[in-house]
Design goal:
Layout: H1 2-11, H2 91-99, E1 117-118, E2 124-128, H3 133-138, H4 145-156, E3 165-169, H5 183-200, E4 204-208, H6 210-217, H7 223-226, E5 230-233, E6 236-241, H8 244-249, H9 254-274
Parallel strand pairs: 2-3, 2-4, 4-6
Antiparallel strand pairs: 1-3, 5-6
């Protein structure tokens, strides 16, 4: 019966599902497919052989348009006043020209020009180098500490500001920080001083300090070598001594300045005796 059934099942294409007796047949186990050989990873090239990797550049911010600075107007060079322009000017016209002068760079930082002060028919004329801070404020030469010392020097030889004495400076505008006037500044301002001398016609000029002496004498001057000598501005004798501001810083030289004033007084007496 069993064999017949198995035969019928085979004819139907069906394998027998079980057997009643006998050892059960082990189902055929399919062998697993052969393992494929693993491929080795490609060798890594050395560092030197690697192609360079382009570094990504950081993103750049767009450039903003730069506004061009406006062109500054050209500054004309200072106008030097020709000496011929001053010929024939009287005191009022001369001082008006000095007050409005733009002949050198000193005019750019001044508060006011300082023409001079004193007796316009004086025998004595004292010439300094330039205004200081207080002179720039008040418009009068020698009114600060150096001016008070000058007044004392005048009194020592019997003189007084405003009485037979005229006081002026080689430059009429204050140099910045009270520095020494430059040669071109002295040259630009000298026509004013020259016209003042022409109007006053002093008997004697006392130059206070090296810049004033050089402006009057038109030569290099050393105070130590010029002391005790008589120079000439045209026909007018010139005596050279220290500037009062220098004497405030160098007290021992006051004795030398006293000697110079005595020499100037002696010179004046001789001039008056000759007249």
């Amino acid at each position: 019966m069993t064999r017949r059934r198995d035969a019928i099942l085979r004819e139907m294409g069906l394998a027998p599902l079980w057997r009643l007796r006998g050892a059960a047949e082990e189902p055929a186990v399919e062998a697993p497919p052969p393992a494929l050989p693993l491929e080795a990873p490609p060798a890594r090239p050395p560092e030197a052989a690697r192609p360079p990797v382009a570094a990504s550049a950081p993103a750049r911010r767009p450039l903003l348009p730069v506004a061009e600075a406006p062109a500054l107007p050209a500054v004309p060079p200072p106008r030097v006043v020709p000496a011929a322009d001053l010929a024939g000017l009287g005191w009022d016209a001369l001082e008006a020209r000095i007050l409005g002068c733009e002949g050198c760079v000193l005019c750019q930082r001044r508060k006011q020009a300082v023409p001079g002060v004193g007796d316009r028919q004086a025998d004595w004329m004292f010439v300094g180098e330039g205004p200081g801070a207080e002179e720039d404020e008040r418009g009068e030469p020698f009114v600060g500490q150096a001016g008070r010392l000058l007044d004392a020097m005048l009194a020592a030889i019997g003189l007084q500001r405003g009485h037979d004495v005229y006081i002026a400076n080689a430059v009429k505008c204050r140099p910045p920080n009270n520095r020494t006037p430059e040669a071109d500044e002295l040259a630009a301002c000298f026509p004013y001083l020259r016209r003042q001398i022409e109007l006053i016609q002093p008997r004697l000029i006392v130059a206070l300090g090296r810049p004033a002496a050089q402006a009057l004498l038109n030569q290099e001057v050393k105070i130590s070598a010029a002391r005790g000598k008589t120079f000439r501005y045209g026909d007018i004798p010139v005596v050279v001594t220290y500037h009062p501001a220098y004497l405030l810083r160098n007290q021992p030289d006051k004795a030398k300045a006293w000697e110079d004033l005595c020499f100037a007084r002696k010179t004046m007496r001789a001039l008056r005796d000759e007249a």
